[in-house]
Amino acid sequence: MKAVSTKTGIGFLAALFCGLLLSGSLQAQIFEEPLSSNPLLSPAKATPGPKVLFQPGSQNYFELDTLSLPFFDDFSTNKFKDFRPYMYTGITSRFQNFYEVDDVTPYPDSIYWVNSQPYSYSVNGGGGIDSVLSTQKVKIWVYDTILNPFMRIDSIEAWAYQPKLVLVNGVVTVATGDYDGRFYKKDKEYFIHPVPAWDRSLWADFYVYRNIHMPVNPPTIGVATFDGIDEYGAPYNFQEPNSYGVADYLTSKPIDLSAFSAGDSLYLSFAYQPQGLGFFPGPQDSLVLEFRAPGQPLWDYVWSVPGDELHPFKKVMIKLTQAKYFKKGFQFRFKNYAGLSANKDHWMVDYVYMNANRTHADTMFRDIALVSPPPTILDVYTRMPFQQFTKPDVNEKWENNQISNLWTNDIGVYYEHSFIGPGNNVLSVYPFDNLPGQYDTTCVQPYATNGYDANVRHTTPFFSYDFDVQWPGGVPFTSKQVFKVQHRIQAFNCPKGAGWTPFTDIHAENDTSIYTQVFSNYYAYDDSTAESSIYLGSQGEVTTMFETNFADTLRAVQFHFNPQTNPVTSNNFTIVVYEDDNGKPGDSLYTQTYVLPQYAMWGPNGYTTYILNRPVPVPAGKFYVGWKQNTIFKINIGFDKNRDNTDRHFYKTTGSWNSYSDPDLGYDGTLMIRAVVGGPVSPGEFLGTPVYETPAEITHSLLLYPNPVSDRLYFRSSMAPEKMMQVEIYDLQGRQVRSDNLAGYESISVQGLQPGVYLLRAVNEEEGFIQTKKFIVTQ
């Protein structure tokens, strides 16, 4: 039996004020506080989804398939149910009654009922009225007309109302009687979306925030974050600062446990961490786990932990023992209690795993995984204008590229990254030797005892693409460009022995990540996600330093304003632009007065763009952009804690400028202020896209290199390395000139082919993998 999913609870966790007042010798008032929203969740507001719980009156409902064990999610990929109606085909309609009455067909237009057993009246042969106790008992089933019209939420056992007969002047008359309730016959048409073949989701709702930015030293890349905001990034209760209750839910789809019993040693395990890079949950807050037996409306409490300050991820093992759970349709869910007025009281949940034949000590897994958010290729910025980009802007050696070994023994780990240009053309691959290389495959020790991988060729790899030489025309670019860096790892057995042999990595989905490098028309230091916010608690100014390689024109300024409980949209501020004075803001270049904060929380990434009233020429070198306020009010600016650029942020509350990098302030992060330069900007122009992608958003791909090629053509498929492909090469006349059956990490010779353009087609029908790529053969 398939379940129908609708909104089944409240949702995300909460917040309260947690500012630090910093004053004294600096004569400054700078505050940090939790976010009141999460703009990265906001795009769903403008579309039909993704959401599980529909507003009252919704006509769209989605069938949920029943899962089989094992159940696993480390949140490195997107395994949430897709609730966008336009993604589905085979939609059917159904009329559903709002109530049902046992043993009554067809339903009357209305039914009256009473709580107490009534009398039934009749006219006897002498014209009098007889009465006896009625035996017409009814059971009325009431359906949830608000959240799920297919779910019974209550039942009423009563007696059918019996009209009372009386004699009035010798005439039998129906007297006006009292009844306790009345149901009208009412139904509504609903649209049922079936389970599509492509649905591999595990979760029945989407209140949590799946991300790679919030955790501190997680087991793998990606977590589910619980907080005080809903699936759209808005607080559950913006109007009441002290509101408190259940915030986020994370509910599994129904799971079939009918083939198991308590003797099968079935465990549910997961890892959790309070706070992360956010704000710690207080002792009154908690993270809770609940089970629900099939056919039961209520959830059973299983486990909880009170709020705490940041600590490493802890593992939890829960054994299923009660017979009522070993049926088809078992579900589990996490929820958190928190303040409901802000993005605070954070919990990270990772590595959720449920299977049979486990023990309480089953906490190690045959799994290697990427951990860190993939880095930008730039040295200072995360994004910069295409016309300003030069070779020195490239960071030629990345840092903090972490990899974890979750097994009990050493695992050989090979790491590579591919730099991919427009048209999915592979521009360079690191490392340059063949797989596995002498220095690039290392026996990595278990994370539980030794931490992350320590091989510097993995943790601090080089980026070797030379834009001056290898990019057609060199740099700076003449138009906007988008590149991708795909990071990938592969496992081998240790010790090496006579050669590296493949290791069975049970969760290959966390072995790949992608960074999208955008060259548009703006400078950005941040990664598009705010873990908290900063505001100036006094009159004063705040600026961010930018540096151009060539003279340019400042066209607009972007701020990420974090919405707050008491909006300040009627308080004006001044946009300021300064020239440089020995590393600090100098003389004024431009001011724009009487500007109002506008919260763009429903925009693509939460930025508000202010187009300047006139273009502002900026010379080659440093300039400063920010705001000035002449009254005391909170302009909450997003604060990215994953990247530290405090040495490029300045504030002034008295006569001199001070740096945010002052150790007395104690801040490490990046103010989310951006500078738009170049040609004219029109209102409504889209000025950014999300930076990070994780494998959930990646479709099958095939990378070819080198291209052009003269000897052997190497390729990397997005499938597991051991998956075989039928590889065929065609010339432009459609003639097949090469054919072979190869694995996803191999090469094919092009020797003997005439110089020119060819097509390579790779197919694995079982995996749904079909890719065609163009390449060039040279002498």
CATH topology of the largest domain, what is it called? Jelly Rolls
Overall geometry comes to: globular
Round the mean pLDDT to the nearest integer and report it: 82
**Structural class by secondary-structure content:** mainly beta
Give start-end ranges of low-pLDDT stretches.
Answer: 1-28, 36-57, 686-698
Gross CATH architecture of the largest domain: Sandwich
Quick one: how many beta strands?
A: 54
Beta strand %: 35-45%
Helix content: under 10%
Domain module tally: 5
How large is the radius of gyration? 32 Å
User: Describe the biggest sheet?
Assistant: 7 strands, mixed
Q: Report how far the terminal alpha carbons are from each other.
A: 63 Å
Helical stretch tally: 3
**Could you name the CATH class of the largest domain?**
Mainly Beta
- CATH fourth-tier homologous superfamily of the largest domain: Galactose-binding domain-like
List the helices and strands and how they pair.
Elements: E1 3-5, E2 30-33, E3 60-64, E4 71-73, E5 92-97, E6 99-101, E7 110-114, E8 119-123, E9 129-133, E10 137-143, E11 152-160, E12 164-168, E13 171-175, E14 181-184, E15 187-193, E16 209-211, E17 223-226, E18 244-251, E19 255-256, E20 267-274, E21 286-292, E22 300-306, E23 314-319, E24 328-339, E25 347-355, E26 368-370, E27 384-385, E28 403-405, E29 411-420, E30 426-430, E31 441-444, H1 447-450, H2 456-459, H3 467-470, E32 481-493, E33 512-520, E34 522-523, E35 532-536, E36 540-548, E37 552-559, E38 573-581, E39 584-595, E40 608-618, E41 621-629, E42 637-640, E43 649-652, E44 658-659, E45 670-671, E46 673-677, E47 692-693, E48 702-705, E49 712-717, E50 724-731, E51 736-743, E52 747-749, E53 756-764, E54 769-777
Parallel strand pairs: 3-15, 27-33
Antiparallel strand pairs: 1-3, 2-35, 4-25, 5-15, 6-10, 7-11, 7-14, 8-9, 10-11, 12-13, 16-17, 17-25, 18-24, 19-24, 20-23, 20-25, 21-22, 21-24, 26-28, 29-30, 29-31, 29-32, 32-33, 33-47, 34-46, 35-42, 36-41, 36-43, 37-40, 37-46, 38-39, 38-41, 42-45, 43-44, 48-49, 49-52, 50-51, 50-53, 53-54
